[in-house]
Amino acid sequence: MQVIPQVLQVENLQIQVGETPLLKGISFEVRKGEIFALVGESGSGKSLTSLAIMRLLPEALRISGGRINLHEQSLLTLTEQQMQAVRGKQVAMIFQEPMTSLNPVMKVGDQVAEVLRVHLRLSSKAARAKVVALFEEVGIPDAANRYDWYPHQLSGGQKQRVMIAMALACEPELLIADEPTTALDVTIQAQVLQLLKQIREQRGLSILFITHDMGVVHEMADRVAVMRQGEIVEQADKAHFFSHPQHPYTQKLLADAVPERRYRQIEETAALLEVNDLKVHFPIKKGLFQRTVGYVKAVDGVTLEIPRGQTLALVGESGSGKSTIGQAILKLVNATGGKVSYRADGVEVDLTRLNEKQMRPLRRKVQVIFQDPFSALNPRMTIGEIIREGMTSLKVGPKDRAGQDGRIEELLMQVGLLPEHKYRYPHEFSGGQRQRIGIARALAVEPELIICDEPTSALDVSVRAQVLALLESLQQQYQMSYLFITHDLSIIPAIAHRVAVMQKGRIVEQGAVEAIMRRPQHPYTQQLLASAPQLVRDALAG
Amino acid sequence: MSLTLLWTDGLIWGLIAALAAWGRIVSRSVQVRRQWMQVFESKVAMVSAIVLLFYVLLALLDSIHFTQQEAGQGLQSVLDALLAHLATVQERTYSAPFALTEYNRTLQTLEDGTVAMLYQPLQHINPAASMLWESGKALLAGLLIFTLATAVHLLWRSRVNDVSFVAQARAVWQGRTQLPWKTAYLTVLLLLLAMSWLYQLSFSYHVLGTDKVGGDVLYESLKSIRTGVLIGVLTTLVMLPVALLLGIAAGLFKGWVDDVIQYLYTTLNSIPGVLLIAAAVLVMQVMIGNHPEWFSSTEERADMRLLFLVLILGMTSWTGLCRLLRAETLKISQIEFVTAARAFGVSRFTIIGRHILPNVMHIVLIAVVLDFSGLVLAEAVLSYVGVGVDPTMHSWGNMINQARLEMAREPMVWWSLFAAFIFMFCLVLAANLFSDRVQRVLDPRSQTS
User: Fold this and answer.
1) Same domain, A453 and A478
2) 3-state secondary structure A336-377
3) Residues in chain B whose beta carbon is closer than 8 A to a beta carbon of chain A?
């Protein structure tokens, strides 16, 4: 077997903050022309590793041992000035959030050209030509004109392409990609991943790919290392890794990442909620007198129904209007047209025609769980107060405080927390625990329908699996219906009975999960499914 | 002798009562009590709080006024009565701290008929008194008061904690109590010693010298505390409701409400503050001048002027806080916990009270404390321009204003400025340090656990 030269070698790297170890001696190497994936859940230390390689660690952290070698040169012994020459020129980095990585008041072309001028001392004319060539290489259409655009004029995917162009500008040997596609939609993610692979082929670039997503790893990596709590627990070739995971933690991660293929039998039950030709248009106001100059059609003629005790998954990319439907049902935004009929106690009510006072009795029937567990709970209120709020406002459950306390404890236990947690504040809990609190808060008013607005997209895979299992068991216990809004195809079989696919404010296709996943009819659905990582796609279709 | 309530007296006592009531209500909540305990766990906060309390106490003592009919002296406060030996006496002109003679030589005809330039001895001092003996007496008295106060406090704590008196004392001494009582006792001891020493010596000397017209500077400084605290506290009281109401309304209701409020504060902000205050104060001066029958004494007139100054300062200083609150409310009202509350059908006003107000309180707190020091300083600036408090009223601003000329003379008269500076400095520093701690504890975002 031919020996492939190493580009980067990390040996027994240790990082501490104070006396607490964050990295407990990790070793790996990245070979020439290879994509090496570092996988782990949040807090496992994978981003720290990448920052340590770039020597960009925050002040408080200290490298307490180990070596980082680029080729044969130790990066840890370089002076800051020598390191400056390494950054960008030999090692480049792309970040998770393309929105904040670009300077908003500088033309994107100039931002890339600046790198060229500093590192390669190109004249501005030569730099411009080089930038346009780079833009073409990373697939930015009409590159010569886009040079003069500002970041806000570009889409997320294009911004990430600009970031990649910037990283490639000085022809580095090693590219560190820190979750480069996490903030992007699946279709864009597929394109960016494809681009990275293509650049690797063309340039013989080595890529250290940091991610939490097993599907992406499966798509990209040649070799994989799994990190957990500052340690590498398993390191293997991709094929071996996916066929024979050794460590129990890896096995669990893989099991949680691969969608469960459990298509449900759909029983015909009466519809709890029917949405008919719903339209939500937001006026665009301009000028001194705030004249309305046009409308954003966030939701444009949507028809769907949610049967009692079942889950409808609403899938779509960001900006497709899926969250707006949820808000319109809750009457948090006003519908422009159409009907939202809710069958409450055998009587059908059109929610769009109710005023706030008439809506109140229905508020306890329809509740909501949010995406971001950090902003969904008031930081100034205890868990007990947060859960109590709905009970007192909608007059559900016991009226006296002691009775309510009992109910709160019962709810906390039901979602897998402890009764004494009610005295604590939200900041004392992890993301998954907060999401459970959010669920307990919604449950407190005994709703019939819960609108779950991306409740798992901010969570790690293993926590996501737990939250989904909790939602499922609650559904079986109380016969609740869910409207499950998500962009993640892989969780749909695990949670939903039926699925509706949304694009640009309209529903392009809906039906039973199995039918849509196996035989998608609409081109957009087909595209969405095709964009999903192989791992997910196989599991869905298989 | 009869109790007389000035306008500002009423307001400050009302505020104290309201604060006490609020404290009682709030202290029922376990969490809030725990938070405030956390505030006082810091030694710096404990020291600052005691210093602040001391200032407030003096201001309150100076806010109980009564009229003495038989003496015909007009309005007096409890503090005046305590410092009667300083309030009533008057030297001829400047004298340095602890001086036995005046600061400047004056022409004098001697017994033999010759005329000479001499330092004239001060009239209201007691040069026979031994400084050492007086100091010893003062320190002993301070120690005695401290021992008594500490004993009472220790007894109370030991009752609450249900331990013996000695055990409680040992716990304090070894620093094993939850709150830093040892530091607190030490601060109180130092304050008491300093105060009793100043008080005792003020019978025999002018401890901080005398001013141009021979008034005692220590007395002036102590009397100025009320003016400073009142301007700081009452202005906030005027400003806060306006800023809170308008700021939150603008941020939450948006639309035309927001437009109107923004228009209002932009307009107000674009008029120079000093100009507006000067105009208002001049109008008021004319009004007061035209209606001498409204006031029965000069104190009452000065008080009305102070109240008016507080009002006009409040009216011009709410815009900054209002703008901050509007921005923060806009941000918070988009956060999902507010959406969740709306999904529960919680009314707008409950949302304001329960979700928005507590989450902007840290901004309010910072603004209030920064404004407090700013307002104490603003009073000085306004007095300098001549539109501040009444010239007859004791205030640090007036003292500093006077010092402008005193610093320019040769030899320099430094003690007025020095006294005003020290008294102001301690107050503002204590307020800043205390608020720093409160903010750190009350803002959950700054905590990690």
Assistant:
1) yes
2) CEEEEEEEECCEEEEHHHCCHHHHHHHHCCEEEECCCCCCCC
3) 30-31, 335-337, 339-346, 350, 354-355, 358-359, 444-445, 447-449
Give me the pLDDT at residue B47, please.
95
| ipTM beyond cut 0.90 | no
Give the Å distances, CA to CA, from A446 to A287, A371, A434, A474: 46, 21, 19, 11
Query: Are A96 and A181 part of one and the same domain?
Result: yes
Q: Which of B220, B300, B291, B229 is nearest to B4 (CA)?
A: B300
The answer, yes or no, to whether residue A240 has pLDDT greater than 70, is yes
Tens-digit pLDDT profile for residues B154-206? 999 888 888 888 888 888 888 888 889 999 999 999 999 999 999 988 888 88
Comparing CB atoms, the residue among B344, B354, B447 nearest residue A394 is: B344
Which domain range does residue A71 map to?
A: 6-255
In this predicted structure, what is the pLDDT of residue A131? 92
Task: Tell me the C-alpha distance between A50 and B324, whole Å.
Answer: 38
What DSSP element (H or E) covers B402? helix B396-406
Decide which of A225, A255, A285 is a domain's last residue: A255
Give me the number of domains chain A comprises.
2
Confidence of residue B448 (pLDDT cuts 50, 70, 90): very low
- Is there a contact between A308 and A269 (Cβ–Cβ < 8 Å)? yes
CATH of B225-446, one of 1.50.10.10, 1.10.150.120, 1.10.580.10, 1.10.3720.10: 1.10.3720.10
Closest CA to A176 of A38, A65, A23, A302: A38
Q: Which residues make Cβ contacts (< 8 Å) with residue B398, sequence separation at least 6?
A: B224, B383, B388, B389, B391
Query: Maximum Cα–Cα distance for chain A, whole Å?
Result: 77
Candidates A3, A37, A5, A40; CA nearest to A23 is: A40
Same domain, A357 and A244: no
Residue B213 has pLDDT above 80, yes or no: yes
- Pick the closest to residue A3 from A23, A22, A29 (CA basis): A29
Over residues A305-352, the pLDDT tens digits come to: 899 889 999 998 887 888 889 989 988 888 888 888 988 777 888 888
- Both A202 and A288 in a single domain? no
Q: How far apart are CA B323 and CA B330, in angstroms?
A: 11
Looking at the structure, do residues A332 and A480 belong to the same domain, yes or no? yes
Q: A363 vs chain B: nearest CA distance in angstroms?
A: 6
Q: Report helix, strand and coil shares of chain B as percent, to nearest 5.
A: 70, 5, 20
Q: Residues, chain B, total?
A: 449
Residue B54's pLDDT is what?
Answer: 93
pLDDT for B449 equals 39
CA dihedral A295→A297→A303→A304, nearest 10 degrees, is: -130
Whether this prediction's pTM lies above 0.80 is answered by: no
pLDDT for the residue numbered B203:
87
Same domain, residue pair A223 and A101: yes
* B244 close to B364: Cβ distance less than 8 angstroms: yes
What's the rounded Cα separation, in Å, for the pair A363 and B264?
A: 38
What is d(CA A175, CA A32) in angstroms, rounded to the nearest whole number? Answer: 11
- Which residues from A are below 8 Å from B344, CB to CB? 363, 389-390, 393-394, 445
- Residue A233: both structure tokens together: 């627990």
Are the beta carbons of A441 and B340 separated by less than 8 Å? yes
Q: Is residue A312 part of a domain?
A: yes
| Mutation site, B33, B38, B336, B446, interface A, largest A CB count within 10 A | B336
- Tell me: do A247 and A277 sit in the same domain: no
Query: What count of Cα atoms within 13 Å lies in the side-chain half-sphere of residue A166?
Result: 26
Instruction: State the smallest CA–CA distance between residue A332 and chain B in angstroms.
Output: 7
Q: How confident is the model at residue A288 (pLDDT cuts 50, 70, 90)?
A: low
Spatial distance between the Cα atoms of B306 and A328, rounded to a whole number of angstroms: 55
Residue B93 burial by CB count (10 A; 0-12/13-18/19+): exposed, middle or buried?
middle
